[in-house]
Amino acid sequence: MKISTYQPDQSGLAYSVGTTLDRFIKSKQSDFPFASGELSQLLRDIALASKIVNRETNRAGLSNIGGAFGQTNIQGEEQQKLDIIANIRFIRALSKGGEVCAIVSEEEDAVIDLQNKSGKYVVAIDPLDGSSNIDVNISIGTIFSIYRRKTQVGSPIQKEDIMQPGTEQVASGYVLYGSSTMLVYTTGFGVNGFTYEQSLGEFFLSHPCIKSPEDGQIYSINEGTQDEWELGIKDYIDTCKSRKYSARYIGSLVADFHRNLLKGGIYLYPATQKNPNGKLRLLYEANAMAFIAEQAGAVATDGNRRILEIKPESLHQRTPLFIGSKKMVEEAMTLASVSIKSQ
């Protein structure tokens, strides 16, 4: 009997498809000795739900699931049909997985207690960010944060399990549904991105160890609200224009953040007269993105405080957000601070 030693293919005829998300997650389980595999399974549950939402998004124009649902959520925003579908898909996946005891969703008024006595984790999620862009075929996304519950496993859910600052996240991430579908996440050991290969039904590692450029030349802000900005923000945007920076604003937080994370840039959603507390939600939008940003070497602030250190006081609490390349955010905050002092 002949026995030969395996040698990697050198012919170039069969290219490597890379590392799957599942295999990558398994290889990182030792980073969390407290988790006993539950966190890994939870990330797989999120990945599974995102595959289903990706399918629904891709066929939205053919299956009459685009457009408005005819109701508003707790934020007073009109719900789209895919908002409802995505919310159902993620809640269903997380409830069946068994690792989660409670869910905070943008689409739900209250905390969802899954009555899962063995669940160690709380998930805060925006099931479909930027859903108003669905009907015009613009990139949308999912944003999620994962926390360990504070109270004893098996006991009723308490406020302290839910109202945790971003520093307590054990993982966060987003899924971008665009020209390709990507899942980007961190567990506090760097940021990695995975691209979905539809024919194989798998996410493959495509962007290992993502590092955001320290500086950039892209700014993302809704300039339609400029009359409501404080003077420092106006000064910063004028500075960006004088330097011939590129204005890029899609209106989907996931899409704008993802571009700036990779290419270098800043995303600004300041307080305005209409929204004096900002518009983005702290628990399931700002915290998740801030954790990813900091792990990639970027910065996230509300204009005065580090986003991750803000103690939430309400379920759907809003916050201003300035996030992106370190030098750009620091300069924007310097100008904003000067403006406040001069008033």
TrEMBL record:
Domain of life according to the entry: Bacteria
Binding site for substrate: 129-132, 222, 249, 267-269, 279
Pathway membership: Carbohydrate biosynthesis
Names of required cofactors: Mg(2+)
Pfam families assigned to the protein according to its UniProt record, in alphabetical order: FBPase, FBPase_C
Recorded GO CC terms: cytosol
Binding site for Mg(2+) 2: 126, 129, 285
EC number: 3.1.3.11
Compartments where found: Cytoplasm
UniProt GO MF annotations: fructose 1,6-bisphosphate 1-phosphatase activity; magnesium ion binding
Catalyzed chemical reaction(s): beta-D-fructose 1,6-bisphosphate + H2O = beta-D-fructose 6-phosphate + phosphate
Residues reported to bind Mg(2+) 1: 106, 126, 128
Alphabetized UniProt keyword annotations: Carbohydrate metabolism, Cytoplasm, Hydrolase, Magnesium, Metal-binding
Fructose-1-6-bisphosphatase class I N-terminal domain boundaries: 20-208
InterPro entries (alphabetical): FBPase_C_dom, FBPase_class-1, FBPase_N, FBPtase
Keyword match DNA damage: no
GO biological process, one term: fructose metabolic process
Every Fructose-1-6-bisphosphatase class 1 C-terminal domain range: 213-334
Membrane-spanning intervals of the chain: none
Record's subunit section: Homotetramer.
Family the entry assigns: Belongs to the FBPase class 1 family.
PANTHER family reported for this sequence: FRUCTOSE-1,6-BISPHOSPHATASE-RELATED, SEDOHEPTULOSE-1,7-BISPHOSPHATASE, CHLOROPLASTIC
Name this polypeptide is given: Fructose-1,6-bisphosphatase class 1
Source organism: Algoriphagus machipongonensis
Taxonomic placement: Bacteria, Pseudomonadati, Bacteroidota, Cytophagia, Cytophagales
Name of encoding gene: fbp
